C-alpha cells in the first residue's frame, strides 16, 4: 500500500511540476453515485479452489463510489491525466457446499463475510486526432496500477488473496456536441489479452453550466478479470454516475 501511495504522489507531483507555460487548461473531474455488482465469479487458487459467486450465491451490498481525475490540456490535441478510482464491495451469505479458498476450507452452510476490493491508479495520455465544431475523437494509452484483494472469513477462519500489479490499457474518448450547452460523452479504457481483460467505460450526457463548470450524468461499467493458476476472477460492476468537471 505504501508503494501505491508513493506512486500516486509521484503522478500528481509530476503533473503539477509540468511547465505551466505549456498548459492551456486544467480540468478537475469529480464523479460519484451508486454502484451495484453484476456477476463476480471467483476461484482461488485458479487451478484448485472452489468456484463461487460473490454476487449470486452471496449477497453483495450496493454502495456509493467516487472517482477523482485531473487532466492537463497542453493544447487542443495533447492531454495528460491522473485518476484515482477506489472500488470495494462487501458480501455475506452461505454456500451449500464446502469452499476451498486460498489455503482454507470453509464448511458448507457456514455464515461467510467476503470483501472484494479493486482500487485503480492511472496515468493517461490522449491525442485528439479529430476535432470539429460538433465532434471530438481521441485515443491514447493508460498506465494502470491495480490494488486488488478478495478476502473471506467465517467460523473463526479467514483467508485473503491480495495483488498489486501494473496493466497497460488503451484509452479512447468521443464527444458529440448537440448544442453549445448539451453534449454526449463516450470514454473509457479497455484491453483484452489471453491472460484476461479489463474495460472501464462511461456513457454520459454533459450540460455546460458555465464557462468554468460542466455537469454530467450517465452510466459506467467496469468489467474484466484474469484466469491463471493463482486466480480466477471475472466481475461486472454497474455505476449510476453523476459528476462535475471544473475548468481552471
Structural class: mainly beta
| H and E string | HEEEEEEEEEEEEEEE
CATH topology grouping: Lipocalin
Low-confidence stretches: 7-23
CATH architecture: Beta Barrel
Strand content: over 45%
Sketch the major β-sheet: 10 strands, antiparallel, barrel
| Helix fraction bin | under 10%
- Using the CA coordinates, give the radius of gyration: 20 Å
Name the average pLDDT: 91
Distance between the termini: 31 Å
Largest sheet, order of strands side by side? 1-4-5-9-10-11-12-13-14-15
Q: What is the CATH class name?
A: Mainly Beta
Q: Number of DSSP helices?
A: 1
The CATH homologous superfamily corresponds to: OMPT-like
**Total count of domains:** 1
Question: Can you summarize this structure?
Answer:
By secondary structure, the chain is mainly beta. The protein is built from 1 helix and 15 strands.
Amino acid at each position: 500500500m505504501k508503494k501505491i501511495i508513493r506512486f500516486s504522489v509521484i503522478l500528481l507531483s509530476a503533473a503539477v511540476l509540468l511547465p505551466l507555460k505549456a498548459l492551456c487548461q486544467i480540468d478537475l473531474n469529480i464523479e460519484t453515485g451508486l454502484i451495484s455488482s453484476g456477476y463476480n465469479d471467483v476461484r482461488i487458487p485458479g487451478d484448485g479452489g472452489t468456484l463461487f459467486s460473490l454476487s449470486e450465491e452471496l449477497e453483495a451490498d450496493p454502495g456509493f463510489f467516487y472517482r477523482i481525475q485531473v487532466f492537463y490540456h497542453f493544447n487542443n490535441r495533447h492531454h495528460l491525466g491522473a485518476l484515482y478510482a477506489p472500488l470495494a464491495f462487501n458480501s455475506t451469505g452461505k454456500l451449500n457446499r464446502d469452499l476451498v479458498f486460498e489455503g482454507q476450507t470453509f464448511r458448507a452452510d457456514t455464515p461467510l463475510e467476503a470483501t472484494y476490493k479493486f482500487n485503480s491508479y492511472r496515468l493517461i495520455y490522449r491525442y485528439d486526432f479529430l476535432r470539429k465544431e460538433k465532434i471530438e475523437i481521441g485515443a491514447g494509452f493508460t498506465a494502470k496500477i491495480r490494488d486488488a484483494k478478495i478476502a473471506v472469513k467465517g467460523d473463526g477462519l479467514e483467508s485473503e488473496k491480495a495483488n498489486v500489479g501494473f496493466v497497460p490499457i488503451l484509452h479512447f474518448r468521443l464527444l458529440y456536441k448537440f448544442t453549445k450547452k448539451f453534449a454526449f460523452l463516450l470514454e473509457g479504457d479497455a484491453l483484452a489479452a489471453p491472460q484476461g481483460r479489463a474495460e472501464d467505460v462511461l456513457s454520459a450526457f454533459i450540460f455546460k453550466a458555465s464557462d468554468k463548470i460542466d455537469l454530467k450524468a450517465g452510466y459506467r461499467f467496469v468489467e474484466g478479470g484474469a484466469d491463471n493458476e493463482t486466480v480466477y476472477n471475472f466481475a461486472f460492476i454497474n455505476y449510476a454516475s453523476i459528476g462535475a468537471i471544473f475548468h481552471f
